[in-house]
Design brief:
By secondary structure, the protein is an alpha/beta fold. The chain has a single domain, classed as Sugar-phosphate isomerase, RpiB/LacA/LacB (Ribose 5-phosphate Isomerase B, Chain: A, 3-Layer(aba) Sandwich). The protein contains six helices and five strands; from the N terminus they run βαβαβαβαβαα. The chain has helices at about 10-25, 40-55, 70-75, 90-100, 115-125, 130-140, and strands spanning about 1-5, 30, 60-65, 85, 105. The protein has a five-stranded parallel sheet with strand order 2-1-3-5-4, with helices on both faces. Strand 4 (about 85), helix 4 and strand 5 form a beta-alpha-beta unit. The longest helix is centred in the N-terminal third of the chain and has 13 residues, at about 10-25. The protein is globular. The mean pLDDT is about 95.
Length: about 140
């Protein structure tokens, strides 16, 4: 499994810890930044992660910012990205099971880091159910875009 991860300055500390966690589990991780808490523009990193997932270079993406709203909105502009803002493990499981989400977004200012770890683990270990959900997921991308 390969993960691409990025954040803004508000999500930097959680991102750095998640990179260590995931690589420690033997997961290949591409960290596209930022590499400090200096202020940055979240769309730059959300687009980079989304393009990576869209092009099939990574299996999943993870994005973090203060509320995760901005990175989620940005990521979902990409036609092959299904980014899910998750603040609970149940939401992460459903995002994978029912929506086949391929980018997880986390609100670093609103969840404890330990809970962020649990959400990531749930997201990565949950399979898409397919079946009745497949047709719905196939309708998400904008056919006229």
């Amino acid at each position: 499994m390969k993960i691409v991860i990025g954040s803004d300055h508000a999500g930097y500390e959680y991102k750095a810890k998640l990179v260590t966690l995931l690589t420690g589990k033997g997961i290949e991780v591409e960290d596209i930044g930022p590499f400090s808490t200096d202020s940055v523009d979240y769309p730059d990193f959300a687009h980079a992660v989304s393009e990576n997932v869209e092009q099939g270079k990574s299996d999943f993406g993870i994005l973090l910012c203060g509320s995760a709203q901005g990175v989620t909105m940005t990521a979902n502009k990409h036609q092959k990205v299904r980014a899910a803002l998750c603040w609970m493990t149940d939401i992460a499981a459903l995002a994978r099971q029912h929506n086949n989400a391929n980018v997880l977004t986390l609100p670093a200012r609103f969840i404890a880091y330990e809970y962020a770890e649990q959400i990531v683990e749930t997201f990565l270990s949950t399979e898409f159910e397919g079946g009745r959900h497949e047709n719905r997921v196939n309708k998400i991308a904008c056919s006229s875009c």
